[in-house]
Amino acid sequence: MLRSLKTLHACFALFTSLTLLGIICLTWSVFALLLYFILPRKLGAGVGRRGIMAMFRLYAWSLSAMGAYRLDMTAVDSLRGGPPVILAPNHPCLIDALLILARHPNVVCVMKAELMNNVFLGPGARLARYVRNESPRQMVKESVRHLHEGAVLLLFPEGTRTTRTPINPLAGSVALIARLADVPVQTLVIETDSPYLSKGWPLFKRPCLPIIYRVRLGKRFAPPQDAAAFTAELDAYYRRELIGALQSRWLQSQTHV
After folding, report:
1. Which has the closest alpha carbon to 165: 52, 82, 63, 257?
2. Which of 34, 41, 81, 254 has the most CB atoms lying inside 10 A of its own CB?
3. What's the pLDDT tens digit per position in 109-145?
4. What is the greatest pairwise CA distance in the chain?
5. In 10 A of CB 64, how many CB atoms?
6. Where are the extended beta strands (E) located within the chain?
7. With 90 as the cut, is the pLDDT of residue 7 above it?
8. At a CB cut-off of 8 Å and minimum separation 6, what does 86 contact?
9. What order of strands is seen across the sheet that includes strand 211-221?
């Protein structure tokens, strides 16, 4: 009986949260599409980023309220009002960007180009002036400009969700942008005990609940002079920090499947 109730709760929490996220995103998309054409670029970007923070924070609150997640995201709050930095988290799950964006009002996210055309995410992302990852040269140029304008840049060094333990090989884009913009790199260490929404996880596959998910501030690196050397240093740092992380067990299991 108890097991049946837990399964029922997990199904309810999963489908309710996904439905709520869809409604929130679609509602904001309608307003964002209008505001994109009405507001000047700078004002529109500020409104767009705060709007995204508000809607994702509502979603994160619902996950906690339904008992689906046990979230610890408070470390990200300490970055508010600080100088421009590149946020460089590890990337175990699809929900990572969403939860980070829910904690800071002035984050520019580097995102997949196809998501800019997504009806749920595209209008809001364009209003917030998020950066497409379509053209590497253009991505670097726009990212540097946003940092010079005082924004915080969210860029996952792995480039995609983690598929091996402790972390995928890192791309050099974080180091290159940090060097050109002359800004520090703030690492974020994400841990989660569930493979829910990891690479290859079907959207509607039910996970075991509650999911433990926490983020802590890692080391802040000074602006690099040598992009290749810095990328190697960042890779080594994450490999040390993620030894024994919550996701180690399920990542290791997936690797051996």
Report:
1. 257
2. 254
3. 999 988 888 999 999 999 999 999 988 999 999 999 9
4. 61
5. 14
6. 69-72, 86-89, 107-111, 131-132, 152-154, 185-192, 211-221
7. no
8. 147, 152, 153, 155, 174, 177, 178, 181, 183, 184, 185, 186
9. 69-72, 211-221, 185-192, 86-89, 152-154, 107-111, 131-132
